[in-house]
Amino acid sequence: MKKRNVALWVYFAFLIMPIYWMLNTSFKTNNEILNYMHWFPHNFTVKNYVTIFTSPFWRRGFLNSLAFVSLNVVIVIVAAVPAAYAFSRWHFRGDKHLFFWLLTNRMAPTAAFIVPFFALYSNIGLFDTHIAVALAHALFNLPLAIWILEGFMSGIPKEIDETAFVDGYSFPHFFWKIFRPLISQGIAVAAFFAFLFSWVELLLARTLTSTAAKPITVTLSRSLGAGGWDWGALAAAGVLTMIPGALVVYFIRNLMAKGFAMGRV
Amino acid sequence: MKNRAWWFLLPALAVMSLSAFIPLMTVINYAQYSVFPGSAPQFIGMENFADVLGDGVFLDSLRRQVLFSIEILLIEIPLGLGLALALPKKGKWVGWSLVLLGIPLLIPWNVVGIIWRVFTRSDLGAVPAIFNWIGYGAYNASLNSGDAWWTVVAMDVWHWTPLVILLCYAGLQAIPEEFYRAAKIDGASAWSTFRYVTLPKLRHSLILAVLLRFMDSFKIYAEPFQLTGGGPGNSTTLLSIYTSRKAIGGFNMGFGAAVSIIYFFLVILISWLLYTIMMNVGGGSSK
Questions:
Q1: CA–CA separation, A257 vs B165, rounded Å?
Q2: pLDDT at B162
Q3: What is the CA radius of gyration of chain A?
Q4: Is the ipTM of this complex over 0.85?
Q5: Which of A107, A139, A256 sits opposite B271 (nearest CB)?
Q6: Domains in chain A, start-ordered, CATH in brackets?
């Protein structure tokens, strides 16, 4: 019993250390960051955060990220719910193959898709728009969402649908009034994973945007390479990008356990 | 009835055609041409593929990538399983542990790279200071290729072991208490309880963990790109970094496309192999 606790403490210390160092760095002045090895800031400052919040450049990055992430979640859920319903309720020619093909897209290496994405979205005039990034992220999120939702829907007996139709419910009415509440947890889990991937992804978001839709993650990468190494501001921006994720995890921690328990990630 | 299914699938298929089918066709098409900006594409058949397979840098990054994925699996799967077993099953710490484990998974991937860069850079990081203190003053992730490699591995272990823990932990929670009680009554040792009760029941979680960790570690891009940029030299240039260099920075888009296709099919092939092997091995032992 003792030994396992020691292992856990060591592991959690390892987990927290890099994040702590980032926080620590974000509250220091650049002089202190580069010239002293302090385990906590001696000249505590919030100047780095002020830099971020007062710069339209950083603000726009955050807003762009939020825009395409939400757009992605909406597209994924709207397309995945009916598809998952079809897979869970009906057998049709080629359903297994189609389901498997959808899942193979989850395996696609992102780097393999940047050339065609760039060519395609430039040709149809979507380059550097939020919708382009949202659609590109659907490549990974839609199969995953269909998989998760199909699992939830298969757990609901078909008799419920049949009884409702016998009772004279129209399909949309049945779906909204009876079926939707039953799968709301599944929708939440699917939306969570869509949010997660779209929020953390860099390569596609970077390839498909230049200025108008540039997300925060790209802003971060670029500012790192741009000669003037403002480590304090960089650390502060990094800390800020961790907040939405941490909030989401906190609020849906119970649902998260459920999603993992179903083994459908 | 049967036609109705296709109507339901229509939105999903429309999105997938824009984000998967058309791009995949485009890339297959490109791969057979020599595409240089400013001149008309020229059909050259399989020549691009031959060029890729004869490119030493490609083969090196492939070898490096395979080694990386093997190391990742060998470290993260046992570590994740062990820690999932060590986590308390109930109590007030469970919720907090889960939140803590979830955090690395939700940090943007390039920010993970930045965090580790800030953490390990020789001029401002904590890691060199710690190494210096224990007597390894030579640590420098941007100069020594060995240090850079193990720093990238450590970063991935930091980033993704929580996923393995969460998968295994959820699998453990699903094992009914009765199984353990029965094992106790039979006088099974801790090891044989683990070997004959826990492990077979965790099979699905473990297969999923191995597959996910394989696929994602094989695709890794943003974290090492941000941490080391593939250097020093090419010592941490993994397959995605090589591919994106060829796809964006390279002159011949056809070459980049051929790399992409080889890459995609390697992922599918190895995933399928892993899946088949694990299904057979696990199926044999749980009988």
A1: 11
A2: 92
A3: 23
A4: no
A5: A107
A6: 1-45 (no CATH), 56-261 (1.10.3720.10)
